[in-house]
Amino acid sequence: MQRIYEPENLMEGELLQHMLASEGVKAHLVGRDLLGGVGELPVFGLLALSVEDEHADYARELITAYNGALPVPGEEPDSFPDVLVC
Fold first, then answer.
1. Which domain holds residue 43?
2. What pTM value is reported for the model?
């Protein structure tokens, strides 16, 4: 298993985990259960997505493509120009 990405929060982690699953890559969201200890544990570095070694490069490519996605012109809401809303 390799840690391939550290999401900013649980919502991003779960979103990426499901996106990877839709592409056939099983990912584990490490640290999900530690979030209840925030205040006594360090805030950063608790969450990570991990995948099997043979899927690591492909999973990184998918996450990079997802993070680099731009809204389709004309599809973004007026109140959030240039923001991708899923």
1. 2-67
2. 0.70
